[in-house]
Amino acid sequence: MNLAHWLERAALLHPQRPAIAHGQAVWANYAEFALRVKHWAAALRAGGVGPGERVALFMANCPEYLVALWGTWWAGAVAVPVNAKLHPRELAWIVGHSGSRLVVSEAGRHAELRAALAEASLAAVLAEPHALPGPAAPPLGVPAARDEADAAWLFYTSGTTGRPKGVTLAARQLRWCTMAYLASVQSVAPGDVMLHPAPLSHGGGLYHLPYVLQAGLNVVPASGGFDGAECLDLAAHWRNASFFAAPTMVRRFVDAARERAQERGGQRPEGLATIVYGGGPMYLADIEEALAVVGPHFAQIYGQGESPMTITVLTRHVINDAAQPNHRERLASVGVAQSMVEVSIRDARGGALPAGERGEVCVRGDVVMQGYWNDAAATAAAIRDGWLYTGDVGSLDADGFLTLLDRSKDLVVSGGSNIYPREVEEALLTHPQVAEVAVIGRRDEEWGEVVVAYVVARGPAAADLAAALDTHCLAHIARFKRPKLYRFVTELPKNHYGKVLKTTLREWEAARGEAAGSAPEGATP
Ligand code: AMP
After folding, report:
1. Inter-residue contact 221 to 197 (CB < 8 Å)
2. Which residues, in sequence order, are CB contacts of 404 under 8 Å at separation 6+?
3. Which residue among 159, 211, 221, 351 is least packed, with the fewest CB closer than 10 Å?
4. Could you identify the atom of ligand 1 that is nearest to the CA of residue 497?
5. pLDDT 10s digits, 58-73
6. CA 514 – ligand 1 centroid, Å
7. Nearest ligand 1 atom, CA 407
8. 108 lies in some domain
9. Mean pLDDT score of the chain
10. What range defines the domain where residue 506 resides?
11. In DSSP terms, which residues pair with 79 in a beta bridge?
């Protein structure tokens, strides 16, 4: 099945309902959205892009993004959404790897993109988001026939290590991701609203699908990105609005909500339905603060490109059920398996581990990717006996709640003991002078590795902050887990999706060589 049938259906049932808004203005209703998509599909065909061929989308969030995406599907082609913040050379690599015939991007970037494509000897054609080159063609009346296992979206992983891999998602995965949202996160009725402050090219973008299926409204912020105050205004304007946010965005949204509350006599944000957070660790201290400032509007999902947005869920109900005896443990977890997937913890030999034991998180179900694009070896390494090995370490409790510890490569082994950076980070974040923290291992002759904490201090870092944090850790975690070194920095290195780049921190440590002092330092190395 071609997913574009969802749009066809919404346009038949609800032609006049608003489909896409730009900021606070309706940009297209469902009839208009579908018509633009049919024109886009026809222009693709006229330009020689046939079913199964790839079209790269390289642009910031804008209403035309959704037309280009659905138009690509309507024509039976495969969308390759690429984060607009990538370097032109990184884009060129993805265009080459995916074999994209066309790159859709704002006109202002065409010159640099043309140069990067030429440098990589690629012949892909550049197009603008609002119009395709070539002769005018009558709209393509019906979506091209596609099998549910045919590629629909190539999702290039964020590449916090090495080259990105092209996760191949077919209609099957996108459908199950949508069904899991409706069954496990929240239901959607016609007119419900989804804001898109996070890049449409990444996981959060998949959450526009349930809103097309159900004839809801997808709102692209006028800023094209994330701005806490703008999200507050959009929710108040459109009402019943949800959005997906990485933990760093949640933190910024909470700051904006706190500021707004101070201006308006303590009033909480209006018009919010659910803020779905995920994509990286949410620390207990942060979610507790978010709940106190914003109110009971949060749900968490855990997923990865290879099992898009769909491994576990911590529902609003669980998050708000403060009377539950294990409530804080549950809040610190990533919840239970989403509907229609199985989650299991496995050891290095693939054996299933019982509740309470730590091992690699594995997931099985129709939402798991078809494989990596043109990379059979990587696919075989990731999917074994039908299970996707996520590379995340975690444990399930007796009630099926999953606690994530870390990516297996982030584990620190010191003096023969495993130290999960996340535990140390959680402990440090409860100190009032710690705004953000990332913990890594540093090679050490005596211990194998020692724990190093990169800390962004709240306000100016006091001269004795390292000593204060050491005392704080001694009061909260086992002695051997506490950092041996503190590095005070003004900000943490993050990728374009806001994930902390521990690989960069490890490079910084390696570059420091033997000079391993622990005195607080004021600036980023
Ligand atoms: P990506 O494929 O770029 O979306 O990255 C997926 C990875 O982000 C996962 O394998 C986890 O390591 C991490 N991640 C995603 N969701 C969560 C979450 N809710 N809590 C902690 N880590 C998460």
Report:
1. yes
2. 281, 302, 333, 334, 361, 392, 393, 394, 422
3. 351
4. 3
5. 999 999 999 999 999 9
6. 33
7. 12
8. yes
9. 93
10. 411-511
11. 55, 153
